[in-house]
Amino acid sequence: MSSGDAEQPLPKVALVGHPNVGKTTLFNQLTGARKKVGNYPGVTVEKVSATLFTPHGHEFELVDLPGSYSLTPNSPDEAVTRDVLLGDFEGEARPSLVICVVDASSLERHLYFALQVMDLGLPVVLALNQVDRAEEVGIRLNRQVLADLLEIPVVACQATSGKGVVQLKQAMRFPMPPPPIRKWKAPGLVESQLAQLTKDLRELEVSRPEVHAIHLLADSSYRVEQQPYLPLMAQIKAREAAAACIKKGMAPEDAIQKERFLTIRRACRAATHDAGPHRESLSDKLDKYVLHPVLGWVFFAAIMFLIFWSIFRFASYPMDFVENLVTAAQNLVATPMPDGDLEDLIVEGIIGGVGSVLIFLPQIALLFLFIGLLEGSGYMARAAFLMDKIMGRAGLTGKSFLPLLSGYACAIPGVMATRTINSAKERLLTILILPWMSCSARLPVYLLLIPLLVAGTFAQTMMMFLLYALGTGGALFAAWLLGKRIGRAEPPPHFLIELPPYRLPDLGYVGRHVLDRSLAFLKKAGTVILGISILLWALAAFPKAPSGSEAEQFSYSLMGRLGEAIAPAVAPLGWDGRLGTAMLTSFAAREVFVSSMAISYAIDEDEAGDDEDVRRKLREKITAAKRSDGSPLYTPLVIFSLLVFYVYALQCLPTTVVVHRETQSWAWAVGQLAGMSVFAYVAAFIVFQLGRLLGYT
Length: 697
Fold this sequence. Notes:
By secondary structure, the protein is of the alpha/beta class. Among the domains are: 10-171, P-loop containing nucleotide triphosphate hydrolases (Rossmann fold, 3-Layer(aba) Sandwich), CATH 3.40.50.300; 188-261, no CATH class. 60% of the residues lie in helices and 7% in strands. It contains 32 helices and 9 strands. Strands 2-3-4-1-5-6-8 form a 7-stranded mixed sheet, sandwiched between helices. The chain starts with a helix and ends with a helix.
């Protein structure tokens, strides 16, 4: 193949549809999940694409466009979908073919979006997903009748099982099917203005003048708001055309919408029929309990409890394996090496520091597994629906729940997931409070400290539940408070979400999700945490104390001196200098807290071959630590004060960078970092001082 051929872009196929319609599952079935993830040029909206080969030997680029309810966008994601399909997105080629995925059991509701796509002058294939659910509720679809009426290929499929995937690939062939002709006709006045506007746009050399003319008349905001891909005169002409219709008492967007709905109803009447009385599907039966105003909350609480309990209960076995690997690595390196700084750096600084964090990988993988199962089963959307009323009291909607829940895994994808929120104010509020969701980076801290506070799996599970509740409750309170400061200029947001049917999760997809997130954690451990562990070791090892004793070495070292300097600031929280130093270093990444404590409480050389895991050794050191008067240093009150600090502190600089990118403001990003840090300090101060007043230790 010549270099010129290699640079020739592949024909692009766009996959579009409502959120939760099974579009991403179908994408994975078509491509084998060999996806590339990036951002669209100039915006933060994620672009997911992959190459695929059809049975005819043709190669295409399949692009999974953001889920959209309409081509009249209410969020940045929907705006990207509209602009890519219109061919107006700079740096992004217009698709050669569009696969529009619709829910066969809710055909009439989904076909409006499909009809909008068909008006774009692109070849379209309609993918009828979830045909089994339609049959389950007593709906029979005549696919051929629908294809004849719309004059486009229609393929019945079932994304979760792979049914219809081969037929969809066969629909991607050369030559492409012709673009469908417009299926509706507006009243005479609107049609005449549409024809005139098309002519005006052609004279202005606007690409695809008829397509843009339809969209300008069908979407009032599109012709009013600034569009960087259209000349201003095109919008002026569109406003004149709309004004001519309105003057005669006929808003063009209303007339076009009405005709589209009439077209959809005629198609649905002809292509569908009820096979007897409507039958409740399994999803409908389950929703009577899952969405019940009382039982629904019981079910939700039970799921959350099960997740936290499992993290403690089932992760112990793989954790034993990881800790044995860490110990074996330390022994393997320490045995042939002579004693000295190099041996100590490798064994304690690198292997011990990074190993003390890797030990928590099984719990983190379990958390991602449960989140993937909840999403894949269809329950996540129900949880968002359930939370909508509570979120509303904080000035948010259920749309904020999904990004916030993602924040339990990692704040960064949670912040990026706020792009689906159509209200700019709600999106900003969600971004500002999202880091208070206890992400997986906090798990190493929680899992180290909770056993020092309470014993037994049930008690530890309840303590974990309490910490997550503190973070979530604080986030909603902050949203309510910040909402008043930001103002209530926007109308109250409305929450609209598609409730997918319950289904067995795609275990392959869930497994890949867990693997990707676990590898991301390992990459972080191998870069950021490794670098900080080496730095922490150097701070603890130099300068050398004259006597060489462990206790004197720490106070003599740079880390000890830093601890002495920060000790007065953290003393009101009940902390000593070691805790203060560990807190400071963990602002780069929360997980570093464990490495910092492990390095500052260095394990004696004669313990290097011990089979006890790193956490137990560290807990023993923490438990044995004393104040100058001989009293325990780390009392239950001090431990709880520390946990409260880590619940509320934003100790993740990458999150601050992403917040700046999403809000386009360093003021919001830095203000969030400073505000959450101050709040965390004050909360820990209140806990410790109030506990002392009440007689707790």
